[in-house]
Design goal:
The complex is a heterodimer of chains A (227) and B (358). Chain A has helices at 2-38, 44-56, 59-70, 75-82, 92-118, 121-128, 133-144, 146-161, 165-171, 181-190, 194-218. The longest helix of chain A has 37 residues, at 2-38. Chain A is globular and about 65 Å long. Helix content of chain A is 77%, strand content 0%. By secondary structure, chain B is α+β, with helices and mostly antiparallel strands. Chain B folds into two domains: 3-229, Rossmann fold (3-Layer(aba) Sandwich), CATH 3.40.50; 235-356, RNA polymerase II/Efflux pump adaptor protein, barrel-sandwich hybrid domain (OB fold (Dihydrolipoamide Acetyltransferase, E2P)). Chain B is 21% helix and 36% strand. The longest helix of chain B is centred in the middle third of the chain and has 17 residues, at 165-181. Chain B is globular, with a radius of gyration of 22 Å. The two termini of chain B are 28 Å apart. The chains are: A mainly alpha (227), B alpha+beta (358).
């Protein structure tokens, strides 16, 4: 029974990580998606490719580079050093930074789709109704893109919840701080403790199913305005 | 200085847009022309949605754009009705109407929300979601939404284009009311001669990014030297008032400066100002007064101009009757054999007169 409680305790850093990363990505992903949806700059293509990179890159490759970048000689490491923050690898903050990179496309893509589907017309209409661009962004663009935000939040959250490779590379496996559910399951299997692996896997399976169910019940069921 | 002066030059691969135009800062100015002639671009330039370098625009003496000033769209006191209603789908009809209204200073609210709602007849739709409205209802809400910002200038980009004929007939009377009741100048892009004859006071004809002609509606319709592209719809609009109503035969007499015409209608009140539309194809000419003709609208007129029609074999004849002009479309053979010459006094027979609701 003690082990089972240990497993439940692992859910806390797991959920904390997913929540923190999702919140951070809302603020990072919105301007990126907005810019991608509205720019006609040539840079749109390479930026799009960089954002989508984590979709195809093996997590261990991404984790490896992030580990180097956050290390004492890497650019992020030098920055944290300069700012007087302790080095990021093998800390919870390090996990957050790595996950932000890893989950970026899951936030940006749905938002990009929502903004592109909306087009410029609602903003133009808002301008003719005396709304400044910033006013129109908050009063028209964001509310119109709400279904996109819901999918983006759920996908980002669920994806961060299940990540494994990147975490193992940059976070190690420190109990109570950087050990998350997916890594714990791996440890159980390594130790031939299939019963514990089963229990935790089942929790993760149920959690993921519920999250996706929410997405499909309240998500954007192609509720396109037929104007 | 009630004038709108504008000067815009754009070179796009698809369009060379060069417009230097002055139009009245009151009444309804219709922009007419084939699709792709730059009508929408003109409205976008006026609204500031299309930012054109080196453009100039002043509205009733107020500079909206010149070399130093560029007033962004949200600071221009205008209303814009797009081809598609473009209502905000996340807001109810009422909140769509309030969106613009609450963003203007209360001292500038000349058109109250209630007035806009009443004018467009949408009081029963306020709680609905825009997706639950018909096309005609949406467009009426969009017009009311624009009016609720008390604009100094209303821009309308083919507001009826996306609607079927029945819905068009449903909205036209509301547009007519705007024209008659509000003193807001309107620039109206349209390609239906019916809409334009009904609503416009001033007409601008555009073709491939340039203004072909611009002037008062009647003058423009009477001029045979400009090809407005009306085709079968070529005709004139006469302004007059109801002089008599014959209830027995359901006819109304419209008196205008060139005489009077009878038209089927018994609902009009005597003294009401109306417009009638006389199409060139419904007008025939006779050298002597036709007795025993079924056509009862006959006016004596004088031939001013004869010009070839865009269709081979046909010619357009411009005639004056009193102070009014009427255009007839005849075959060239008829003109040759009668014959009809410049300056001749002839009898103008008008087979059908369309009364445009006043």
């Amino acid at each position: 029974m003690l082990l089972w409680e240990n497993d439940l305790q692992i859910l806390w850093p797991t959920l904390k990580l997913a929540t923190t990363v999702t919140l951070l990505l809302l603020f990072i992903g919105t301007p990126i998606a907005w810019w991608l949806a509205h720019t006609s700059s040539w840079w749109k293509r390479p930026i799009n490719a960089v954002v989508a990179l984590p979709l195809v890159l093996p997590p261990s490759v991404l984790g490896f580079y992030l580990l180097l970048a956050m290390g004492p000689d890497g650019p992020i490491g030098k920055l944290t050093n300069f700012l007087g923050i302790s080095s990021l690898p093998f800390t919870f903050a390090g996990l957050v930074v790595a996950s932000v990179f890893y989950s970026l496309p899951f936030m940006v893509q749905p938002l990009l789709n929502a903004f592109e589907l909306m087009g410029r017309r609602p903003l133009e209409v808002a301008a003719t109704l005396r709304a400044s661009p910033l006013d129109a962004f908050f009063s028209v663009a964001i509310p119109s893109a709400l279904p996109g935000y819901l999918s983006a939040i759920i996908l980002t959250f669920a994806h961060t919840l299940g990540e494994f490779g990147v975490i193992l590379m940059v976070g190690g496996n420190i109990p109570g701080s950087t050990r998350v559910a997916s890594v714990q399951i791996y440890d159980h299997v390594e130790a031939f403790d299939y019963a514990s692996a089963h229990r935790l896997s089942l929790v993760m399976l149920g959690l993921s199913f519920i999250i996706l169910l929410i997405l499909y019940i309240w998500g954007p069921q192609s509720k396109k305005e037929t104007e | 200085m009630k004038e709108i002066c504008l000067n815009f030059n754009i070179s796009w691969p698809s369009l060379d847009f060069m417009v230097d135009l002055t139009i009245p800062g009151q009444g309804v100015t219709a922009i007419f022309g084939p699709s792709g002639s730059g009508k929408t671009t003109l409205l976008r330039c006026i609204s500031g949605l299309e930012r054109v370098k080196n453009g100039h625009l002043s509205f009733n003496g107020e500079i909206w754009q010149n070399d130093k000033i560029y007033l962004p769209t949200h600071k221009r006191q205008l209303g814009y009705v797009f081809q598609e209603a473009s209502l905000f789908s996340h807001l109810s009809v009422l909140n769509n109407l309030r969106y613009g209204q609450k963003r203007i200073d209360s001292s500038q609210r000349k058109v109250s929300l209630d007035h806009a709602i009443e004018l467009l007849g949408i009081s029963n739709l306020l709680d609905r979601n825009p997706s639950k409205l018909s096309g005609g209802e949406r467009q009426r809400v969009a017009i009311a939404r624009a009016l609720a910002t008390s604009p100094s200038l209303l821009l309308m980009d083919e507001p009826l284009a996306s609607l079927d004929n029945k819905r068009k007939q449903e909205i036209l009377p509301y547009l007519q009311k705007l024209h008659d009741e509000l003193e807001i100048p309107i620039i109206y892009v349209g390609h239906s001669p019916e809409e334009i004859s009904r609503l416009a006071d001033h007409l601008v004809v555009m073709n491939s990014g340039k203004v072909e002609a611009s002037g008062a509606l009647n003058t423009m319709l009477n001029r045979l030297d400009i090809n407005i592209g009306l085709g079968e719809e070529r005709g004139v609009v006469l302004e007059g008032e109801i002089g008599e109503v014959d209830k027995q035969w359901n006819l109304a007499r419209v008196d205008f400066s060139g005489g009077s015409l009878w038209t089927p209608n018994s609902k009009m009140a005597v003294g009401k100002k109306v417009r009638v539309r006389v199409l060139a194809r419904d007008v025939s000419l006779a050298k002597v007064r036709p007795e025993q003709s079924s056509i009862q609208n006959q006016l004596l007129g004088q031939v001013n101009t004869i010009i070839d029609d865009e269709r081979a074999g046909l010619a357009l004849v411009s005639l004056s009757s009193g102070y009014s002009s009427i255009i007839a479309r005849l075959t060239k053979r008829a003109i040759n054999t009668l014959p009809i010459n410049l300056g001749d006094k002839v009898w103008i027979q008008i087979k059908s007169v369309a009364l445009i609701d006043g």
